[in-house]
UniProtKB/TrEMBL annotation:
Protein name: MFS transporter
Keyword Protein biosynthesis: no
Main location: membrane
Organism of origin: Morganella morganii (Proteus morganii)
Localization, UniProt: Cell membrane
Membrane topology: Multi-pass membrane protein
Pfam families named in the record: MFS_1
GO cellular component, one term: plasma membrane
Protein family according to the UniProt entry: Belongs to the major facilitator superfamily. EmrB family.
GO MF annotation: an example: transmembrane transporter activity
NCBIfam families found in the cross-reference section: efflux_EmrB
Residues annotated as transmembrane: 7-31, 43-63, 75-98, 104-122, 134-158, 164-182, 194-215, 221-243, 264-288, 300-321, 328-347, 353-379, 400-418, 457-477
Residue span(s) of domain Major facilitator superfamily (MFS) profile: 9-481
Amino acid sequence: MNRLRYFAVTTAICLGTFMVTLDISIVNVALPAIQHDLQAPMVSLQWLIDAYALCLSALILSAGPLSDRYGRKKMWLAGVLIFTLGSLLCALADTLPLLLAGRVVQGIAVALLIPGALSLITHTFADNRQRIRVIGIWSSVSALSLIVGPILGGVLVHTTGWEGIFLINIPIGIITFLLGQYGIRESADPEKAAFDPAGQLLSIAALGCVTYGLTEAGTHGWLHPLTLLTVTGGIIFLLLFLYTESRVEKPLLPLADFRRREYLHYNLASFVIGFAAYTNVFFIALFLQKAQGWNALEAGWRMSPEFIAMALFAFSFGRIARKLSIRLILGTGLLLTAAACGLMTLLTPYTPYPLTGLILFMLGTGMGLSIPATGALIMHAADPARSGVASATLNMMRQTGMTLGGALLGTLMIQRAVTIAQHRKLPDAVQMITGVQSGELTTTVQHTVYEAFAGGFNLAMAGAALSAVWVFILIFYPRRCKIPQEKGKITS
């Protein structure tokens, strides 16, 4: 591969990831502006995140086999094109349903883009050391987009309105498509690709029901018939999905792979990273604006320590991996993530920013170490001919964690905030927390709202911290995996 093609491939893959990851962080900062402009309640705002993540996590299992069967380049470029069109639809939306439709289109596209990136890296870079380096660069670019997102989002919201956060994806998408068309070579393994339409339908039904039920619990309560019906239905669909996967010849989710303890545990780590760490982007943006009173631009740059740390450590991942085992790097990342989430349970509306920024830097360090570590461990263990399935499984676990984390922790946050507001005798407590605040609030009422949101945020972070501690204990205790740990190797 000549240098020009090498540059085109690496840049295209990184730009594709940059675009879709930018969309996560940039949308979070714009949520209050969208809420005000479209007069949307808080639960509906949560669906702007969950609709995107739900489509991604539900369809990502199909995307991997589609890439293996019909061509990894072809499917990845299709994802770039669809995402660009979805961004245009979002930018033109003047109602919440139309904006949600655009987010659904984006989520479908990202299901092709995210697993496709790791699969393309695996097939393009055969040398382990070179592959580790590119995975580190790819992860650092993802972190860079999270740095740029809040700041750029704040600027765009203040200068062009929230529509600008979607319009920016269009030129990026065009450049990415052209570079990918030139640089990426086509590859496919149709004889080993999965084909399981029944499993796909069941997985969509399972994730859809559970996520919808957990999200609606914030409005109707945990014991409301709608909540119980949808969550129970989701569990039933999940059991049927697992049964189907154990019977079909070429399943979407190869259950046999999970019989290997280390493979199961690393995928669970990916799930928890999505559940505890990725959802933090949503919660921190709301905390800074709803509990501390900063505007979108101010909240954006205050989130930057997390993403700066992510970029620094992800970019250095290849160098760190030459000196330490990947498993040790993963463990360190999980502990730092758990510690940061634990410290966030102590944040209040009056916490000085330097302390908040330090905690965010710790969280970013944990994510910058653990995200590329899980990808490297799982992709190294996978059959190259089934790299699409392995990458899809890894990302499905992470995105499912993000979807369920956003729904469950978001519901806990809203309910806790409402409870605190009601306990403080706040008039119209439910409307103050879940609806659009109109008009000027008195200082006393405003501080009560701040404290209520902070209390809800603290509870959500406690759940995130416990999940990270759980997966760390699961992986490292009571006994270590019987796999040699060599420095400079992908193996754990």
